[in-house]
Amino acid sequence: MVEINPESRIYVAGHNGFGRLGGDAGIAVPGPYATHLSNRQELDLTDQARSAGFSTAVRPDAVIMAAAQVGGIQANNSRPAEFIGANLLMQSNVIESAYRAGVKKFVFLGRAAYIPSWRRSRSRRSTC
């Protein structure tokens, strides 16, 4: 098993997105790791060449894949191919570039939401 230590370089793809793994609150990776972040203006993960170039330059020891194009229920219903296409490109590019860069650890974060069609209103979240 490969261990990640304080000198490890960790790349977090999608740190400002839905999972909020970064930003002003700081990264949710405990420890003094060398964390690499990039927003979508700096690195378009749907661009295979740029994704590969980033991984080659940074040489991360670990990648946390949290990037995705999201837009809510209405957007997903009206443009489903756009969302799945962009997400498959990002995932494929990050996984392939991580593999080619020799990444030792890869964490893929995913989230799915499902609201039955028979349900007219959104579910309420309770706090326990």
Features:
4 strands, Rossmann fold, 128 residues, alpha/beta, 3 helices
SSE blueprint:
Blueprint: E1 9-13, E2 34-38, H1 48-58, E3 62-65, H2 72-78, H3 80-100, E4 105-108
Helix pairs in contact: 1-3, 2-3
Descriptive notes:
The protein is 30% helix and 14% strand. With 128 residues, it is an alpha/beta fold. The chain has a single domain, classed as 3-Layer(aba) Sandwich (Rossmann fold). A 4-stranded parallel β-sheet has the order 2-1-3-4, with helices on one face. Helix 1 (48-58) packs parallel to helix 3 (80-100). The longest helix has 21 residues, at 80-100. The relative contact order is 0.19. Residues 23-27 have low confidence and may be disordered.
Radius of gyration: 17 Å
CATH level 1 class label: Alpha Beta
How many domain regions? 1
Share in β-strands: 5-15%
The parts where pLDDT drops under 50 for at least 5 residues are: 23-27
Structural class by helix and strand composition: alpha/beta
The coarse overall form would be elongated
CATH-wise, what's the superfamily? Answer: NAD(P)-binding Rossmann-like Domain
CATH architecture: 3-Layer(aba) Sandwich
Q: Would you list the SSEs in sequence order as H and E?
A: EEHEHHE
Which fold name fills CATH's third level, the topology? Rossmann fold
Question: For this entry, what is the oligomeric state of its chains?
Answer: single chain
Binned, the helix content reads 25-40%
**Mean pLDDT level:** 78
If helices are DSSP runs of H or I spanning 4 or more residues, what is the number of helices? 3
**Would you count the extended β strands for me?**
4
Main sheet characteristics: 4 strands, parallel
Strand order of the largest sheet: 2-1-3-4
Distance between the termini: 36 Å
